[in-house]
Design brief:
The protein is mainly α and 293 residues long. It is built from twelve helices and no strands.
Length: 293
């Protein structure tokens, strides 16, 4: 009887999990699909039922959003900023995480604690101090050269993105590096490989699943970031989230909804494509671990 009761409980638990996952999937898929369908509707179709399928494919919405609303320029800025930020982040975080997780040296515990403390700093709270600091530096540069450098600069924004993501990235990579067996490092040392060769040829390929997770998470963070981009890019070099809100305000005032939803699709599409590409490796990285040697 206890066995029968246990089977019944397990079945109910599985049903609950499946129903919950199905509800979550529906709550995500329906709004996304609705935005995609709304992006190809003509403006007159929005005055009927919001759930009605489009009469045809009105791609003029994307043309207006991409060219007339300058979403193409904003897309290019976001691609440049995100790519630079990821490069800066990986160049800094990978060696730092490897050293902090695999070597014993004086001050290691303090540095690890310092990195973990950075996890509790919200970027929103330090946006204004960062802006004031860069504004002061920009004023000094303008006094000497007559032109600013630190504001409305895509490389500076990418550096700040990478800096704010360092604590999380180093913490995640360090945790993964600690699970990798030391046998490979010992074999490489016997073969005469130095620390750099061991890191680049052995440890980084083994940590590829974790690196993919870091790249995807930080891509989403950088791609969708709004507050720093709005604060530090007051000129023409706006990123997609800032440009999208400008587009939403303009099109809503003009009662022109098609380009507004087309702009949303332009923002979402790169994220969906990247997720589809790395989906298998992402799942593998979340489930595969190492065994300590």
């Amino acid at each position: 009887m206890n066995k029968s009761k246990g089977i019944r409980t397990e079945t109910l638990y599985k049903i609950f999990i499946y129903v919950t996952l199905l509800a979550l999937a529906i709550s995500i898929i329906i709004p996304v699909a609705w935005v995609f369908l709304a992006s190809i509707k003509e403006n007159k179709e929005f005055y009927g039922s919001p759930w009605a399928l489009p009469d045809g494919f009105y791609f003029q919405n994307f043309v207006e959003a991409f060219f007339d609303a300058h979403m193409g320029d904003y897309l290019l800025n976001s691609v440049i900023v995100t790519a630079l930020a990821l490069i800066f982040l990986l160049i800094t975080a990978l060696p730092a995480a490897y050293v902090l997780s695999r070597f014993e040296f004086r001050g290691r515990k303090f540095l690890n604690s310092f990195v973990k403390a950075g996890l509790f700093i919200n970027v929103s709270y330090i946006a204004v101090p960062i802006f004031l600091m860069l504004l002061g530096w920009d004023s000094g540069v303008k006094a000497i050269f007559g032109d600013g450098l630190f504001l409305n600069n895509r490389m500076i924004l990418a550096l700040i993105y990478a800096s704010t993501a360092l604590p999380f990235t180093i913490f995640l990579l360090s945790s993964y590096f600690e699970t990798l067996p030391s046998d490979f490092e010992e074999a490489a040392s016997i073969d005469g490989a130095g620390h750099y060769r061991t890191m680049f040829s052995i440890m980084l390929p083994m940590a590829a699943p974790s690196i993919i997770i870091v790249v995807l998470f930080n891509f989403l963070l950088f791609w969708n970031e709004y507050i720093l981009a709005l604060t530090l890019m007051p000129g023409a070099n706006k990123t997609l989230p800032v440009g999208l809100l400008n587009l939403l305000a303009a099109e809503r005032a003009a009662v022109n909804y098609g380009p507004m939803y087309a702009g949303m699709v332009i923002v979402m599409l790169p994220t969906l494509i990247l997720y589809i590409i790395v989906q298998k490796r992402l799942t593998q990285g979340m489930t595969v671990g190492g065994v300590k040697g």
